Amino acid sequence: MDEKTGPVHKSDEEWRSALGREEFAVLRQGATERPWSGEYVSTTATGVYRCRACGAELFRSAEKFESHCGWPSFFDPAESEAVTLHEDRSLGMVRTEVRCARCESHLGHVFYGEGYDTPTDARYCINSIALTLEADDSVQ
User: Fold this and answer.
1) Which of 54, 100, 103, 125 is flagged as catalytic?
2) Which residues belong to any copy of the MsrB domain (predicted)?
């Protein structure tokens, strides 16, 4: 990986100064924002969703769908290497955590087999606060 896309390693202190309090709680401590509170839950703008912590491309608007769960949902990441998946046994459940492959920030969780009419039958349930949207202004 080159310098622009290579791994990002920072101390907790560096992350705290780079991120807001809520951003740090979600991205670095694995918290979850309240449902329906995020800025991208209902967004239909065309563009690229990037990691708020490091700017890596994670998802594209073409893979976003309305799941009515309270968080932005995508059926596939932008690239297969954009995210990493990890077993999460917190809160008395077994789930699959989704992290940014570049900076290892917590993004949300992925769920399979829920019956959504998508090409992958997967729902990447992602915290809005973990993302920034780079809107494609060329699309009207």
Assistant:
1) 125
2) 12-136
Least confident of 8-17, 23-32, 50-59, 129-138: 129-138
Question: What is the C-alpha to C-alpha distance for residues 134 and 33, in angstroms, rounded to an integer?
Answer: 21
137 versus 59: the higher-pLDDT residue is 59
Radius of gyration (C-alpha) of the chain in whole angstroms? 15
Residue 111 bridge partners (DSSP) = 123
Question: Is 125 annotated as catalytic?
Answer: yes
| The domain made up of 12-135 is a member of CATH 2.170.150.20 | yes
The answer to whether the beta carbons of residues 75 and 85 sit under 8 Å apart is no
Q: How far apart are CA 8 and CA 81, in angstroms?
A: 15
Cα 70 to Cα 49: distance, rounded to the nearest angstrom:
17
List, in sequence order, the alpha helices (H) in the chain: 12-18, 21-27
Q: How confident is the model at residue 106 (pLDDT cuts 50, 70, 90)?
A: very high
Angle at 87 between CA 58 and CA 3, to 5 degrees: 35
